[in-house]
UniProtKB/TrEMBL annotation:
Residues 215-308 form the Glycosyl transferase family domain. Gene3D superfamilies: Glycogen Phosphorylase B. This is Glycosyl transferases group 1. Keywords: Transferase. The lineage of its organism: Bacteria, Bacillati, Bacillota, Bacilli, Bacillales. It comes from Lihuaxuella thermophila. GO terms for molecular function: glycosyltransferase activity. It comes from the Bacteria.
Length: 338
């Protein structure tokens, strides 16, 4: 079986890494995998699968695949117009919530093709808009990369607490909630009695927290990301909505307690006061209360660490890849049997 994965780009980011891993998983299963990308795209990963560069995303340039797997609204239309019977819609996020052309994005979910989503929240959004259900397959982490240090290393009372946060520029990623995080950290600074520093991971370019102790990092791979997770006393996520959100799960796998907004997809692996501290989105005061609570309550922090580790043991990258490949094999065989 051959799978074709059209992409716009392969930059550093969770969604692009998932697509690269999917292609590799098909190769490991003995299938053929081809990634198709316009000449304007960039590649930030080592690829084992074939990479085909095309002039631009158009139906005439999409090669045949027994499965054609677009994951974004801009790659769906040329894929569907070229190979409607072979097309399977992979959804890593509900684009109508944030892209400019919401009507075009919604159209990609209305077509009569199978849909695979990555969380039950995402499945619910698809259903509420187009009355179609998807096959839900949760993402997962690689335990050979994301694993914990000794939990006691996080409870040294003589060191400043390290708060880890992935900072995305508000003009392009308003829904990631960076402005909310800035406001919440002002509250934390006013009320936390000890010393702390915020480690900002800035994928695009350095952002700042005026008046707040912070340091900027730009990790280039998963190993560097995992080191940052393990070095933190707390990981914070402030998104308004997320289809899944791998970073909180990666932090859990590294033995770091998580404070996160209820952004939707996280509910497939986050339970309040069991595996994470969950608060409402777009509410800096509640986010600050969560940070202050976990930093000040060692017993709760240890409980969240253990709960997070248990969840991460279940949601692995291998399980995700195995389920996805099996699902696409089943779709292919059912189509061939008709």
């Amino acid at each position: 079986m051959k799978v074709v994965i059209p992409v716009g780009d392969l930059h550093i980011g969770g969604g692009c890494k998932v697509l690269v891993d999917i292609a590799h998983a098909f190769l490991e299963r003995g299938h053929d995998a081809e990634i198709v990308m316009p000449q304007t795209g960039t590649v930030k990963y080592q690829l084992q699968s074939r990479l085909t560069i095309i002039p631009f995303l158009h139906k005439q340039y999409i090669p045949y695949g027994d499965i054609v797997l677009p994951n974004f609204y801009t790659t769906f239309r040329p894929s569907f117009e070229a190979w409607p019977k072979q097309c399977v819609r992979l959804s890593l996020g509900f684009e109508p919530f944030w892209v400019p052309d919401k009507r075009e994005a919604l159209w990609t979910y209305e077509q009569e093709v199978p849909i695979i989503s990555i969380s039950h929240w995402l499945d619910d959004q698809i259903y509420s808009h187009v009355k179609k259900r998807s096959k839900v397959i949760n993402l997962g982490v690689d335990p050979s990369v994301f694993y914990p240090d000794s939990p006691e290393s996080k409870f040294d009372r003589h060191k400043p607490k390290v708060i880890l946060y992935i900072a995305r520029p508000p003009y392009a990623y308003e829904f990631k909630g960076f402005n909310d995080f800035v406001e919440c950290m002002k509250i934390v600074q006013q009320h936390y009695p000890g010393k702390f520093i915020v480690h900002l991971i800035c994928p695009e370019y350095p952002l700042s927290l005026p008046g707040i102790p912070h340091k900027v990092f730009s990790p280039q791979n998963e190993i560097q990301m995992a080191d940052l997770y393990r070095s933190a006393d707390l990981f914070v996520s402030s998104s308004w909505f997320e289809a899944f959100s791998l970073p909180p799960l990666e932090a859990m796998a590294c033995g770091t307690p998580v404070v996160t907004t209820n952004s939707g997809g996280i509910l497939d692996f986050c339970t309040h006061m069991q595996s994470a501290y969950i608060c409402p989105p777009q509410h800096p005061q509640s986010l600050a209360e969560g940070i202050l609570t976990v930093l000040s309550d060692e017993k709760l922090a240890k409980k969240l660490i253990q709960g997070g580790l248990k969840v991460a043991q279940r949601l692995t990258k291998r399980n995700f890849e195995h389920s996805l490949v099996e699902t696409l094999e089943m779709i292919y065989h059912e189509r061939m049997a008709k």
